[in-house]
């Protein structure tokens, strides 16, 4: 019968709540709150196209675009050899 040390069980959670992830989740929550509070219709024009629709949909599209840009521009750090 083997008992796991307390450090082993905690080590699973150590890398989960990094400051970067906490800030990202907080900003995503603020973006979602902004989207939910702005549900009026709006009119958008881009490259000659004119579209009328709900403002939350336009905000959601901009949020998704920002997330995609962030993911694409993120630098990947090589993992150290084990």
Radius of gyration: 21 Å
Helix content: 55-70%
Strand content: 5-15%
Report the principal-axis shape. Answer: elongated
Query: Biggest sheet: strands side by side, in what order?
Result: 1-2
| Count of β-strands | 2
Span between N and C termini? 29 Å
The overall pLDDT, averaged over residues, is 79
Give the biggest sheet: 2 strands, antiparallel
Order of helices and strands: HHEEH
Class by alpha and beta content: alpha+beta
Quaternary structure classification: single chain
- The number of helical elements comes to 3
**Unreliable spans:** none
What features would you describe in this structure?
With 82 residues, the chain is of the alpha+beta class. It has a domain at 16-40 and 48-73. 57% of the residues lie in helices and 15% in strands. The protein has 3 helices and 2 strands. A two-stranded antiparallel ribbon has the order 1-2. Helix 2 runs antiparallel to helix 3 (55-73). The longest helix has 19 residues, at 19-37. The two termini are 29 Å apart. 0% of the residues are buried. The mean pLDDT is 79.
């Amino acid at each position: 019968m083997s008992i796991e040390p307390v450090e082993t069980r905690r080590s699973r959670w150590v890398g989960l709540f990094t400051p970067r992830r906490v800030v990202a989740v907080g900003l995503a929550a603020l973006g979602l709150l902004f989207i939910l509070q702005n549900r009026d219709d709006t009119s958008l024009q881009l490259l000659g196209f004119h579209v009328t629709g709900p403002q939350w949909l336009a905000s959601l599209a901009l949020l998704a675009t920002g997330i995609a840009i962030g993911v694409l521009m993120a630098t990947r750090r090589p993992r150290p050899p084990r």
